[in-house]
Specification:
Elements (H helix, E strand, L loop, with lengths): L27 H7 L4 E4 L5 H8 L6 E5 L12 E5 L12 E5 L8 H10 L3 E7 L3 H4 L20 H10 L2 E12 L14 H18 L5 E11 L1
Parallel strand pairs: 1-2, 1-4, 2-3, 4-5
Antiparallel strand pairs: 5-7, 6-7
Amino acid sequence: MKMRINDVVKTQFDFGWKKWGKNIPGYAEPTLKHQKGDILDIGCATCELYVYLRKNGWNGNYYGIDIKRYPGYDYPDGAHLIIGDPMEMEFPPVDTIVLYNILEHVDDPVGLLEKALDSSKNVLINIPKRNEELWEYGVVEFHQLDKTHKNCGFSTEEVYKLCDIAGGRLVDYEEFIEIKPTFGLASWNSNLPKYALILLNRISFAILNLFFSSRKFYSDIWCEVVKK
């Protein structure tokens, strides 16, 4: 019998993002602050954003679009879940459209943002920030591990260009979740004794931290966009 890869190793994982628990994402509070009324959450997963908003006094209508319904998760009452491809459907009438952790998953991020801008008063975006300077030193960023991403994150310049091409204008821009320059640093591949490898890693960590001591790196970009 031919062995399949998923019979040998785990191939599916979700990084625990389908239920927030006490780990509230950094984009939750800005959503509450910048929403204009009724919300369409594209890439809504299990509608945890809706749960957060309700707990914090928001009482608008919430619509969530996702490509599928996730088994084994309870969806909150009051959230209007729509299953399908957002590029192939008509959006319900809303005031604010949320594009959180979705533009890196689609083939046409410009087209999706353009459609969202045409269908709302404002669009709120969260995407992974690409820090290529860290890559040169062997630092692995968390979003690089997600096999479902269509790109390797966005630079600041690309975010502004993306919004401009889609016919939008940024009115608010933030970077958050500070990352250390040694996070995910590849281990030394050597035949040296274990104590020597530990010492080399510690020295390399100290050098990188010193080198980047005056710099701050962030893993996420959040922004608010309106139509030009």
